[in-house]
């Protein structure tokens, strides 16, 4: 099984950004843990702060991967284009969020991704990614 983890804006700052919300572990070290935990899964990782690059990556991976774990960060709440890209591809997408977006600002309660995602995992810290991988197995 081949899965892509696709992270959006500011997630490259995990471990240093708002640690009370996102924790103190950086994503690269967590990604290594995921690869060790799921040796039967071919995991790839891509992060971008640019909306168009995320759309391009969805289009590239969306016909060759078995699934995509997408944490689009703030673009979740603003990007119709990312939602449209998910509709256009064949790979199932699981929307992932580290924090509970419903316990935060009201604008974070809307997602342009959720209507097109296979499922949504919200609020379990970095373990949200673990749960998303398990959903594909």
From TrEMBL:
Its EC number is 4.2.1.10. It comes from the Bacteria. Pathway: Metabolic intermediate biosynthesis; chorismate biosynthesis; chorismate from D-erythrose 4-phosphate and phosphoenolpyruvate: step 3/7. InterPro entries: DHquinase_II (IPR001874), DHquinase_II_CS (IPR018509), DHquinase_II_sf (IPR036441). Substrate binds at residues 71, 77, 84, 98-99, 108. Catalyzes a trans-dehydration via an enolate intermediate. Homododecamer. Belongs to the type-II 3-dehydroquinase family. This is 3-dehydroquinate dehydratase.
